[in-house]
Design brief:
Length: 176
């Protein structure tokens, strides 16, 4: 089964993000995220496959007991190579260290990191612009909006699973 480890976004930031997805995708004909829904999140460990989830659950249960909740911000918009548009995030040094430590812990149970985990760039995806002209339209539209700003509490590490086509929340672990 395929899994991904994320921070779940909640509250006003979640509602804002979901609203943008529902607006931007259809408006510009880029419906991938609408057709393949996933809870509002920031990826902490990119997708991987594992046969037994039990060991992962044990690791995350112990891991989240060692760390305190911290602060992150959603602040403005960004993009990757004029393809992916997203809500930009700012993580404290402490929160960045949590993600690095998490990747190290996962390696202990043979969940290997990949280039996205090593060069981690936290963000909240809004849309993929599959053609340069579509990306430009999306990006130009986002630049007309007020720059979003949300102060969030980094208080969970969550496993999402993909039993079929859609990602679902499997289990959430709280940071205190």
């Amino acid at each position: 089964m395929k899994y991904v480890i994320v921070y779940l976004i909640k509250g006003k930031a979640k509602r804002y993000h979901e609203g943008l997805i529902k607006e931007v995708g259809p408006k510009f004909g880029e419906n991938y995220i609408i057709e393949n829904p996933i809870p509002s999140h920031i990826t902490l460990k990119s997708p991987f496959e594992i046969k037994s989830i039990n060991k992962l659950e044990e690791i995350l249960k112990d891991f989240t007991k060692k760390y305190k909740a911290s602060k992150i911000q959603i602040d403005g918009f960004g993009n990757f190579k004029r393809f992916v548009s997203f809500l930009d995030t700012k993580f404290s040094k402490y929160t960045l260290q949590i993600q690095k430590d998490l990747i190290r812990e996962l390696e202990l149970i043979d969940i290997k990191y990949n280039k996205f985990d090593k060069k981690w760039n936290p963000h909240v995806t809004i849309a993929y612009g599959n053609k340069p002209e579509t990306f430009n339209q999306i990006w130009n539209y986002l630049k007309t909006l007020d720059s979003p700003h949300f102060d969030l509490k980094f208080d969970n590490i969550t496993i999402l699973k993909k039993p079929r086509k859609y990602w679902k929340i499997y289990r959430e672990f709280e940071l205190k």
